[in-house]
């Protein structure tokens, strides 16, 4: 989880904004059940009357009510009322209404309701002649009127003692019914009161629903933008890191794995970021708010919520133990599938040539089946969770109705309160369900975050020095000083104690049997790898003391395999020197003998080049790669077996033109063909990573047996005899 939060850290302000909006959304969602309860309890059952004491009452009715008020509190009740404007004979007698200061004071209203609660219950009982009145010890109304204050207070005290077991909800309902009868006597429109209350409460619900919808949309928008930014930044950081990797890091992370980490893994992080902002932050707010609301609704049934949450946790823990180990394997399976797919697509021509389509299909099918089988297992386990969760939620609803029905029947709870309790319970359980679902999905995203962070934390083995030296007026002299090299993790050196100098204006050729270390040697010059022992210098400066950019700016590198980029011919030739003129570009193409096929194309230098140069031949790729290096105008040319795809005539023409163009630069050529290096100023013969011979063609024929064997295998007897004669 820490790795995931690391990606969210730059967006702390947006996360805080989301948290604030989620609190607003939770407030709206948690308020709706209470309004639903009000509509049922007050709007329907109570006829829209939500007052605890009558706001208006006839003077005669108040005097009857005061019969049931203790004598010491009668004056306080009378002082709370004043004569209403719509009072007098025209309105059926004197009408009293609550004073404004009493209406505006919640404390005074609560105190007045506490005084009038039991009297209103008794007044309603007397008025409606409730059965069992005499048995309950309640005297006849006429008798009750003639009692003096002391006797009446004594009777009221006895009645209060006998009514202690009556639930508060019944007292409240009786008070409401009494107030309703009072309003009816005053001729007030009860239907209008009920309708107005329902419309007003419904309007509040609609407003809250609209505000909640707006908050939800806002959260979704911010979460999507943050997730997209996290994905963009992660991809950018990974790309910049990978571009700076040396060949050693590419050997450590396979290309297929790097592709998976840059795409699928970052997508997992992006998806979970949205879920964190929309669900993980929201669920605790809803859970805490729901519990608080429930405690204010009915404490007696909170055990049902605890039971539901416990059942959900049990289900999720089981799934977590079963599924989590599989998530760690999924991404490795994706790596494997990408690797097989990439190998097949890259080598499709070889596969067709050797007729191994069936074998490759089986290899792909095996990797695909393994991933499919694992995903099916995980998805089946996840789909099992939802039916179980729905069973738990519906069971909890039935249990609430069963328990709540008894409370409603006993008068301890109202129907609306039970409905609100059900909604709050569902909100709490859904909150815990969301948390649990995220906890199950989190491991896969955590694995992806770890894999991406592994790339970001990886320190490149090839680094620029803290205080690099500066190159001025570079001549291009490359010197190998007792250089040895061993690949990372290898048991022995590939190159052993190499010492030679490639001087400006001279051509240094490297030849040897396959696997002798020729390409490894030239890969050390651009610092694709760093030497294990010894040093390589450029104009006397150790190349490790220069920045990679400054070093490579002096090199024109043509790899063993011609690599082109999608675009056109001009963009590929000018790839290393975008600021070169058109004349320089055409000159580079002419030296590389590329004009031969460029001029035959309709769009000339604007002719398109497809990805990887798939629409040009191998020889054309090499010529364009050579032209790209020439257009850069470097001080050191490195040709890693870059003439192998050229015919002898083109090879000779390219070398002849190069000799004129590169007369001031150092040229290093790796070659397999003797004809390519016959006229080199210096030839190095590599044998098993060691220099077996060094000199010109004729010198080596006489001095180096390994070189002689190579020459004998490629030159005719006449050519070999002539060269040997000249060497002597």
From TrEMBL:
Main location: membrane
Span of domain ABC transmembrane type-1: 192-444
Membrane-topology descriptor: Multi-pass membrane protein
Superkingdom per UniProt: Bacteria
Record-level GO cellular component terms: plasma membrane
GO molecular function, one term: ATP binding
Residues forming coiled coils: none
Pfam families in the record: ABC_membrane, ABC_tran
Residue ranges of domain ABC transporter in the record: 478-713
Transmembrane segments: 205-228, 276-295, 301-323, 381-402, 422-442
Location in the cell: Cell membrane
Key words, A-Z: ATP-binding, Cell membrane, Membrane, Nucleotide-binding, Transmembrane, Transmembrane helix, Transport
PANTHER family (UniProt xref): ATP-BINDING CASSETTE SUB-FAMILY B MEMBER 10, MITOCHONDRIAL, ATP-DEPENDENT PERMEASE MDL1, MITOCHONDRIAL
Name recorded for this polypeptide: ABC transporter ATP-binding protein
């Amino acid at each position: 989880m820490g790795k995931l939060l690391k990606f969210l850290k730059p967006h702390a302000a947006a996360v805080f904004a989301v948290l604030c909006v989620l609190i607003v959304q939770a407030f709206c969602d948690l308020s709706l059940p209470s309004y639903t309860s009000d509509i049922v309890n007050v709007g329907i059952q109570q006829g829209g009357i939500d007052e605890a004491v009558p706001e208006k009452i006839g003077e005669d009715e108040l005097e009857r009510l005061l019969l049931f008020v203790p004598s010491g509190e009668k004056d306080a009740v009378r002082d709370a009322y004043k004569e209403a404007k719509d009072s007098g004979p025209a309105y059926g007698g004197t009408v009293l209404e609550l004073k404004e200061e009493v209406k505006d004071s919640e404390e005074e209203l609560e105190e007045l309701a506490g005084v009038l609660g039991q009297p209103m219950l008794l007044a309603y009982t007397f008025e409606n002649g409730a059965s069992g009145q005499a048995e309950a010890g309640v005297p006849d109304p006429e008798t009750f009127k003639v009692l003096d204050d002391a006797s009446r207070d004594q009777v009221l005290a006895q009645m209060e003692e006998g009514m202690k077991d009556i639930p508060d909800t019944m007292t409240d309902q009786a008070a409401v019914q009494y107030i309703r009868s009072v309003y009816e006597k005053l001729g007030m429109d009860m239907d209008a009161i009920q309708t107005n209350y329902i419309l007003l409460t419904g309007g509040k619900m609609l407003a809250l629903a609209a505000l909640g919808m707006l908050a939800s949309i806002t959260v979704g928008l911010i979460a999507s933008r943050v997730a997209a930014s996290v994905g963009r930044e992660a991809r950018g950081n990974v790309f910049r890191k990978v571009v700076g990797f040396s060949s050693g890091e590419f050997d450590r992370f396979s290309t297929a794995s790097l592709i998976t980490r840059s795409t699928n893994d970052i997508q997992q992080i992006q998806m979970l970021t949205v879920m964190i902002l929309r669900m993980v932050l929201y669920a605790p707010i809803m859970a805490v708010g729901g519990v608080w609301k429930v405690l204010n609704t009915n404490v007696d049934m909170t055990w049902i919520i605890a039971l539901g949450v416990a059942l959900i946790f049990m289900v999720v823990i089981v799934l977590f133990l079963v599924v989590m180990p599989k998530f760690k394997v999924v991404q490795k399976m994706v790596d494997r599938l990408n690797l097989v797919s990439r190998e097949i697509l890259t080598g499709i021509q070889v596969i067709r040539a050797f007729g191994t389509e069936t074998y490759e299909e089986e290899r792909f099918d095996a990797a695909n089946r393994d991933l499919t089988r694992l995903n099916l297992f995980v998805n089946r386990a996840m789909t099992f969770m939802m039916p179980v969760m729905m069973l738990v939620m519906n069971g909890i609803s039935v249990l609430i109705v069963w328990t709540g029905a008894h409370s409603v029947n006993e008068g301890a709870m109202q129907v609306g309160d039970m409905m609100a309790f059900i909604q709050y319970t569902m909100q709490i359980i859904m909150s815990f369900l969301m948390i649990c679902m995220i906890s199950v999905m989190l491991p896969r995203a955590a694995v992806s975050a770890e894999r991406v962070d592994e790339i970001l934390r990886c320190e490149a083995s090839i680094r620029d020095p803290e205080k690099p030296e500066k190159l001025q007026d570079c001549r291009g002299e490359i010197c190998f000083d007792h250089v040895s090299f061993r690949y990372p993790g290898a048991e022995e050196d590939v190159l052993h104690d190499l010492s030679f100098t490639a001087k400006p204006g001279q051509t240094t050729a490297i030849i040897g049997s396959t696997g002798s270390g020729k390409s490894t040697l030239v890969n050390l010059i651009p610092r694709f790898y760093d030497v294990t022992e010894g040093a390589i210098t450029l104009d006397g400066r150790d190349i490790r003391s220069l920045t990679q950019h400054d070093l490579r700016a002096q090199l024109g590198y043509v790899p063993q395999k011609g690599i082109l980029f999608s675009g056109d011919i001009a963009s590929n030739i000018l790839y290393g020197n975008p600021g070169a003129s058109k004349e320089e570009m055409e000159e580079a193409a002419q030296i590389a003998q590329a004009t031969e096929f460029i001029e035959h194309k309709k769009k000339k230098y604007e002719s398109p080049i497809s990805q990887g140069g798939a629409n040009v031949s191998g020889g054309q790729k090499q010529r364009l790669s050579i032209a790209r290096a020439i257009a850069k105008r470097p001080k050191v040319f490195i040709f890693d077996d870059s003439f192998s795809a050229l015919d002898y005539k083109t090879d000779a023409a390219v070398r002849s033109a190069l000799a004129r163009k590169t007369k001031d630069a150092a040229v290093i050529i790796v070659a397999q063909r003797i004809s390519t290096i016959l006229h080199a100023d210096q030839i190095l013969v590599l044998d098993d990573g060691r220099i077996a011979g060094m000199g010109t063609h004729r010198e080596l024929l006489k001095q180096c047996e390994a070189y002689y064997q190579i020459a004998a295998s490629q030159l005719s007897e006449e050519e070999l005899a002539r060269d040997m004669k000249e060497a002597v």
